[in-house]
Structure formats: C-alpha cells, structure tokens
C-alpha cells in the first residue's frame, strides 16, 4: 500500500508496484479483434477521427479497429485504447467505452476524480479500478469532453510497464485532444512588471496555502536578471518551536542539487578535464553496470540525462546507508541493469547522477576518495566561486548554521518532526540530492542561469555554450517537457520553462526560471510530499506574471481533495494494532541482500519495524483476496507495505517497487550485514 493520491492520467504516469505480470484472472480479457497490430519502426504522428495529431513512440504496436486505436508498449504489457464517444457526460462516456471495447469489464471503481474543467475542456472525469495488490496492475479510464464529444482513454498495464514506459505513454495521453480546444497560452505574451502589488499577491497566496496544508516553514525568492526582487521566509523552522524561517535558513534541496552537479560538470568541461561525450569508464575505469554493453556506451552526458534506461532504484540508499561511501554506492551499480535502451525513453535514476557527479570530480581531484573529491570541487568550482556562502554538503556544518528540521507526513496527512539524522542516507549519494542551501544562495544560482553564465556581479563564471548545453533536450518526458542535463526543459502553456524540483524524506524544493521573461523562482519547504503546494505556487506565479486565468486555487483544492480521498480509501480496513496471533510468527530478523537486515519486534502493545537508520510502528491490512500486508505507520516511509507471502511452508516479506522486487528471508543474513 504505497499510499498516495493517484494523479490524473493525462498529467503523469501512474506508479504502483512490482515486476512483469501476466494479465490477472480478475481482469477481463480484451475482446478479440480481426484487426492486426503493426509495430512502428520510428516515432509516428497519428490521430483519430477529429483529434489533433499526437505522436506514438518507436517500437510500440498500433491496432486500428472501428475508429479506435489500441496502443501497446514494446513489451506488450501496457495497453492504451483511444476512442471518441459522443455524449454530454464524461463519466458515462467511460462506461460506454468499456462496453465497446470489453463488454465483460466489471471491475469495481476504486476512486473517481472530477477535476475542474480547464485548458479549454468542458468536463474531465477519471476512474481508477480495484485490482488485487499482488497483481501489481493499474487500470484506469479517463474522459475529457469538448462539446458533445468525449475523448476517452482506457489504460491497462502492469505497474512495471507504467513505470518503464510512462513518459512515452504521457506523450499520447497529453496529445490526444480536441482540435476545437481554445487552450490558454502564454506564448509570445509579454510578462507584466513584477510590482510590489503583484508580488504581494503571490506572497498572500503562498502564506494562505502554507497554512491550509499545515506546512511548518517555507522560503521564497523571486529574481529578475541579476537582481533579487523578493525574498522572504514563512512559518517556523520546526513544529513546536518559534524560530522563524528566513531567507538564510538552510533546507535540504534534494534533487534540485542535480542542476548544481551539472553546473560543476560544465565548468570542468570548460577547463578541458573531459567532454560531455567522454566515455564514463575513461574517467572512472572501475565503473560498471550489470550490463557490459551499456557500460561501454555510457558517456558523461548519459549519467545526467535520465535517458539511459536505468530504472529508478532508491531503496538501497534508504535502507542501507550508515557508514556507506561513494565508492560503495558506485560498486552497487554492478547489480543494476537498464530496462530500456539509451535515448529510448525517460527514466529517472539517482544512482546514475551519483556516478556522474563522482566521476566528474574524480577527473579534477584523482588522488582523493570520491566523496572528498566531489565536496572539494563543488566548494571551489561552484559554491565559493558563485558566492553561495552557506550552501554545503556537510551535515555537521549545516547543523551549526541556521537550518530547518525535516518533517514527514503521517497517514492522517499531518506532519511530524524527524531527526536530521534521518536524512543522512543522502550523504553517499549527494551528487544526486544532498545539498543544503537557502533561498538567498539559490537565488544567486538562478541569476547565473538567467544571465547565461555570469555571476550577479557580472563576472564570467562558465561559458555560455556549456551552460546552455545542459538545457538541450535529451529525452522527452511528455509532449511539453523534456529532460536535459540535470534540468527539465520545456514549456508551461507556451511559456519557455526550465526547472528542477527535489524531495527528500523530510524536505522539498523547487527551482524554476523563464529565460525569455528573465525571471526565476526558488521555493523551499521543510516537509515531505509538498507536491500540491509547489504546483499551486508555480501556477500562481504564472498567473501573476502573465495575467493568466485564475486556476491556482481550484487546482490546489482538487489536488488536496483527491489526496485526502485516496488516503481514506487506502486506510479502510487498516488495523493499527495487528492481531498478535498473526504477528508473533513474523517477529525477529529478516534479511535481503540489497536492503540488508531489518527486525520486527513487539514493544508493549506496538509492533515496531526497525531498519537501523529509521524505525516505524506497524499496522496490518487484510485484502479481499485473503492476502495480508504489514503497513508502516510512521514517517519517513508511512504507507509503505510488505506483503506477507507463505508458499510451500516458507514465509517471506516482499517489498514491491515499480521495477524491483525485494524478498526478505527470515534470519540475520551474513554476519557483515548485522549492525
């Protein structure tokens, strides 16, 4: 039970759990068709009867049948059916679409969503359907209505395929729309002056939204060219304490650190230490993946492009981190394999960026251990040179400065303070997400981006060519956004936008700038999972800048309502105090080679899960199919679940992730793993 609000299908790919599965028996089988599928040899523009063109990626299978399009991913584990259904109800159109394509479809609806109609649509409706957890499957229906035509998308796929091919699917989902839409567009629109009155409107929205979401602390900065127009702290550094957030308060910025890592790389390319297309093994000869051919092909550019086909794989660093070094994290990658080809589709990988940052620093400081080399190069080439006086990867130094505390989200959607030590899992992977920074320092970085490589004082810092090389699209995320080198590049309603957000176990961040408008924003919070907040603030900023339609509040209200409903649904049947008869046989030590040793033990009336670096109380959930799961009740991983599987007299605990499956066996494991 990875408890999270399921986003609208058209906005992002859905992520659930697990590896490849065959279509489950509870899922109605697709209807037979005389039409034959054809495999696309190249990315191909397509359209249905009255829609505007959209693009289907190379390698996908396409079946055209009675006005419908069936799209299947290259592995044929993900099916997307597109059809147009007449009528004035988007909800009824979904029902009619299932009748047309699979008359025996009878899965119960798990969640329905009816968001505000925006971007020219008259109505939007989505259903997600209940499937047994062990089937690791996502089934959904989405209808968007314009006039009396509904543009319906039916999706059915394994969770692994959704994770692996989600970016390619998103290009279709966003592109399948009416040619009659009058979408809001900021393209070519002159930005308004960011007057004190307009900035006050943004400030009021930030503070109101912060209070609505019960976020303890926020820091915000707005820059234009090489000037800071606005900087302010909101709220407190830690729940239950009075110290206020200021523009100098340090926050962990998570994956926003990636843009700083690639900035360091750009400076080293300027120095001639290597080129963007230098082979990775030329910089770090011992580097290897679980795929020898991929290892040979990999370049410096590939390590930070999210385009290598390496799937997201973060559990190793969360479960086993105490005392780990950069060298050990790099060595782990020998067990990691790509699931798609280089350049084929967007897949986000923290280990790849970790490797890229370390190998780049090693080229400049080859005599130092990887972590020390990276810290020194980042300090000298980036932080000191740019005047980012407080930014650091050193947790001890951050603790001595004005800093915020991390906060995790509970299953009741409240926040609780976490120990700063909870975040130390980032230390050995810091090139991908371990920087502490504040709004004032990050504003200097954004000004550097806006001035194309000059410091706010006008001094040359990095060549324009290598700064801008980071903004060149490497792989598409959807039809409006691509990934560059440690930056997301694209547009929002026609306005050129470059950004990168970040999430840790108890902090979140966002950094975005609009080059043509010459403005940028830094947003830092001391909570886990503030997605609705960041999205709403970005939308509000665009409304202020371009006099856009008033949508930010409605989008926020819908996102929070959907999240609340999703949590409530998943909490149904959850027992916070498991039955002792069921739980006692599960107590003791459990071991997985990749994630190490964990223990489950009784402490008074509570059952506690102990991973070493963090602990959580445990609940129990029985599913309709008779299976049982252990549910972590406390942050930082509240809502994560372990399936209890009993087969042939053997009991295991299974943690399912989108493209990984971690099986824990009873026992301590190798002696070296015991902490």
Describe this structure in words.
InterPro entries: AmpC-like, Beta-lactam-related, Beta-lactam/transpept-like. The protein is α+β, with helices and mostly antiparallel strands and 675 residues long. It has three domains: 38-175, Protein Transport Mog1p, Chain A; 196-565, Beta-lactamase, CATH 3.40.710.10; 574-673, Lipocalin. It contains 18 helices and 31 strands. It starts with 37 loop residues before the first strand and ends in a 9-residue tail after the last strand.
Summarize it.
The chain is 28% helix and 25% strand. By secondary structure, the chain is of the alpha+beta class.
Number of domains: 3
| Percentage of residues in strands | 25-35%
- Termini separation (Å)? 28 Å
| Poorly predicted parts | 1-27
Largest sheet report: 8 strands, antiparallel
Helix segment tally: 18
CATH homologous superfamily heading of the largest domain: DD-peptidase/beta-lactamase superfamily
Could you please say which CATH topology of the largest domain applies here?
A: Beta-lactamase
Overall mean pLDDT stands at 92
Structural class: alpha+beta
Shape: globular
Q: At the first level of CATH, what is the class of the largest domain?
A: Alpha Beta
Q: Work out the helicity level.
A: 25-40%
Rg of Cα set: 25 Å
